[in-house]
Amino acid sequence: MTLEEFTRHLDVHGADLDRWPAELRAMARTVAGTPEGRSTLEAACALGALLDESLPAPPMLGLKARILARVPPTVPAWPEWLAVGRWRRLAGVAVAPLALGFVLGFAWPTEDDELEDAVSVLAFSSVLDEALVEGESDVE
Amino acid sequence: MADPSDEELLRRLRSRDRAAFAVLLDRHLAGVQAYAFRMTDNRADAEDIAQETFLRVWSRAKTFRPGRVRVSTWLYRIAHNLCVDAFRRRRDVVEDGLDTLADERFSGLSGSIAEERRAAVRAAVAELPERQRAALVLCQLQGWSNKDAAVVLEVSVDALESLVARARRTLRRRLETFREEPAEAGGRAG
Predict the structure, then answer these.
(1) I want to staple B155 with a disulfide (CB 3.0 to 4.6 A). Which of B53, B113, B148, B159 is the partner?
(2) B185 with A52: Cβ contact below 8 A
(3) DSSP A12-47
(4) How far is A101 from chain B (nearest CA, A)?
(5) Which contiguous run of DSSP H or E holds residue B141?
(6) Which of residues 166-185 of B touch A (CB under 8 A)?
(7) Is B42 helix (H, G, I), strand (E, B) or coil?
(8) Does residue B109 belong to the interface with chain A, where contact is any CB pair within 8 Å?
(9) What is the model's pTM?
């Protein structure tokens, strides 16, 4: 690795040689052992130190509490099998055929309507007869 | 019992689990806030961005697709997009913001040379194009690998390395005078 390549890699990977790609480290340390290489590395270290010193992490000052105050309290978790989405789907599956049957049942009158009326008359005819008989006897 | 993974915490967030949310905040809030602060150079903006990032995580946990990106990457991507929005909103007043914040940030320093040096570094970083700045902040200050930073910024690794190299070259050129008096933090050569 030439000094020029070493300088270029310093710009890409920074001054911490331990963070360089493994295949470059040994060659980098060889160059860093030369006077020119050491000087170049020291300049890169100084730049890194300047940045670290000038842009420290700020204190948080209650930020976590303020964020937590913005989210709603935890609601009891439903078991997976009670999940709302699942029941909604099941309800849809169950209700759809019922609704369809209801609509179809009212939309098409059966051909047996007259027969049903006749059956009803016959079924209640004895009751009517008895009522009439009882009514006549009361008159008497 | 092992600590739950970020992915497990996200899964619990889908059922509105505040305890899981608190753990996620403990893990990532400081880093996200630091990233936002280093990007915008404004403490109030950084807090707003960090807060909005996590509120979006809370409300959009169901949209996270495990396996595509890591939770931390997703978080920083949200934060980065919010930073870009904030940066564009206040682009015209960045310099005023720097002046205002300088007093606040450097209050712990005693020497005017140190103050001047920090102000110059911050100004130099603030003047970097936003993608170069983001690449530099992620790789140099947040300790992300080039590969992970590329995922956050949604660029290829080659593009990320180009961005961070250009940022370092620009800063080295602009801060030439200060490197002769390096900060007390010392080097990091391995």
Answers:
(1) B159
(2) yes
(3) HH-S-GGGS-HHHHHHHHHHHTSHHHHHHHHHHHHH
(4) 38
(5) none
(6) 166, 168-169, 171-172, 175, 178-179, 182-185
(7) coil
(8) no
(9) 0.71
ipTM: 0.79
Please indicate whether, in this complex, the C-beta atoms of A60 and B189 are within 8 angstroms of each other. no
pLDDT digits (tens, 9 = 90+) for B24-68: 999 999 999 999 999 988 899 999 999 999 999 999 998 888 888
From CA B69, how far away is CA B188, in angstroms rounded?
A: 30
SS (H, E, C) chain A: CCHHHHHHHHHHHCCCHHHCCHHHHHHHHHHHCCHHHHHHHHHHHHHHHHHHHHCCCCCCCCHHHHHHHCCCCCCCCCCHHHCHHHHHHHHHHHHHHHHHHHHHHHHCCCCCHHHHHHHHHHHHHHHHHHHHHHHHHHHC
Which residues of chain B carry a pLDDT beneath 70? Answer: 1, 91-111, 179-190
Give the type of residue at A127: V
Average pLDDT, chain A: 80
User: Which residue has 């996620």 as its token pair?
Assistant: B24
CB B135 within 8 A of CB B164: yes
Of the candidates A15, A43, A67, the beta carbon closest to that of B51 is on A67
pLDDT in tens, A67-91: 999 988 766 655 656 666 666 677 7
